[in-house]
Write a structure and sequence with these properties.
The protein is an all-beta fold. Helix content is 0%, strand content 34%. It is globular. The chain starts with a strand and ends in a 10-residue tail after the last strand.
């Protein structure tokens, strides 16, 4: 599922979501909407992007994962809790 922000240019793809509950995914304090029905992205205010294209964002327990497909200035949240940047898994050491 693709979602778009209504307050900035952020767009995400839902990679993983809890099967039993549907969290409220928001960006910049406003709920995100399906990308297909989203209005044109409003211009960003010129601030530093809070969401970065190509990065994955997860909730605290790892049940929700979003992939950012367009950077924007709004912060991603799930049910009011900020999402964090998913860190890369370390590669195994080569001998």
């Amino acid at each position: 599922e693709q979602l778009a922000s209504t307050v900035c240019a952020t767009r995400v793809v839902v990679v993983r979501a809890p099967a039993d509950a549907r969290p409220v995914i928001a960006c910049g304090g406003e709920p995100m909407v399906p990308a297909a029905s989203a209005p044109a992205a409003p211009p960003d205010s010129g601030g530093e992007p809070a969401t970065l294209i190509g990065k994955r964002y997860v909730n605290a327990d790892g049940t929700l994962e979003l992939l950012c497909t367009a950077s924007g200035t709004g912060e991603l949240t799930s049910d009011g809790a900020p999402l964090t940047l998913k860190s890369a898994k370390p590669l195994p050491a080569s001998d």
